[in-house]
Structures are given as structure tokens and as C-alpha cells.
Write a structure and sequence with these properties.
CATH superfamily: VirB8 protein
Keywords: Membrane, Plasmid, Transmembrane, Transmembrane helix
Number of domains: 1
Number of helices: 1
Pfam family, one: VirB8
Distance between the termini: 25 Å
Strand content: 35-45%
Domain Bacterial virulence protein VirB8: 1-61
Radius of gyration: 17 Å
Helix content: under 10%
CATH architecture: Roll
Shape: flat
Membrane topology: Single-pass membrane protein
Number of strands: 3
CATH class: Alpha Beta
Order of helices and strands: EEHE
Structural class: mainly beta
Subcellular location: Membrane
Length: 64
């Protein structure tokens, strides 16, 4: 299991923050496993470590 903090932003077509939207802080709890049996070279190129996400739960981060 891991927790990842990230920021969500709305961007305009030029990649700049869109006016009228504030960035929000999030924390996600992720459970994962490793697929130890990568069968083909193509699989290895796409996902070299065999990471498999089992669940993903994003929640707004509450900062007091």
C-alpha cells in the first residue's frame, strides 16, 4: 500500500492555469502488487516492473 499526494489543476489550451479555477490538493491511497511473470518483451517495455494497481482511492487533502 502507498499514499501519493498530488495537485489537480485546470489548464487552458496553452497549458497555463485556467482563470477562475483553483488548484486543489489530493491524497490517494493505492494498493498494488508486482506481476513476477512478465511473459513477453512487449509487456516488459510497457511495464518493466510488472506493477499492478489493485485499488485507487483519491480524497481531497484536508489541511488544518
Amino acid at each position: 500500500m502507498a499514499q501519493v499526494r498530488f495537485k489537480k489543476m485546470v489548464l487552458d489550451l496553452s497549458g497555463k492555469p485556467a482563470p477562475g479555477y483553483r488548484a486543489t490538493e489530493w491524497i490517494s491511497t493505492i494498493s498494488f502488487d508486482w506481476d513476477k511473470d512478465i511473459k513477453t518483451e512487449k509487456e516488459r517495455l510497457v511495464n518493466p516492473l510488472g506493477l499492478q494497481v489493485l485499488s485507487y482511492q483519491p480524497d481531497p487533502e484536508v489541511i488544518k
